[in-house]
Specification:
By secondary structure, the protein is of the alpha+beta class. Helices cover about 25% and strands about 25% of the residues. Strands 1-2-3-5-4 form a 5-stranded mixed β-sheet, with helices on one face. α3 links the parallel β2 and β3. The protein is globular and about 35 Å long.
């Protein structure tokens, strides 16, 4: 079993291509023009089983998920109080809005990753 396949048992990455013009509902700010104008990859679910956190599983699987994508931006929503919020920021995701998807969900930060920028 490949390392990626093995890691996939410990995390659940998935998403979809969001068309140009598309954006998240109920945001406090409109999408930045350069992001709204293009197709982007929306990461829907992202969780790593607790006992495998802090071992690079999430980073490796996120990179694997995005490597095969052609969209210049990736976007996701994250609870601003979650410890993962700081992790996203460290690896280049930036907050562009907040959303309150429904009464049953907490307010979430909308973060994007510009996949065309080089990072060291």
């Amino acid at each position: 079993m490949s390392r990626i396949a093995e890691m996939s048992r410990w995390a659940s990455p998935m998403g979809f291509a969001m068309p140009s013009g598309g954006w998240f509902r109920n945001t406090d700010q409109p999408a930045p023009a350069e992001i709204k104008a293009v197709e982007k990859f929306a990461v829907l679910e992202w969780a790593v089983v607790p006992k495998h956190r802090g071992k690079g599983v999430g980073r490796t699987l996120m990179q694997s998920l995005l490597d095969g994508r052609h969209e210049p931006f990736a976007a996701l929503t994250v609870n601003p109080a979650a410890e993962t919020r700081a992790i996203y920021e460290r690896v280049g995701w930036r907050r562009v809005a907040a959303t309150h998807p429904s009464r049953n969900w907490p307010a979430m930060d909308v973060v994007v990753l510009n996949r065309t920028e080089k990072r060291s």
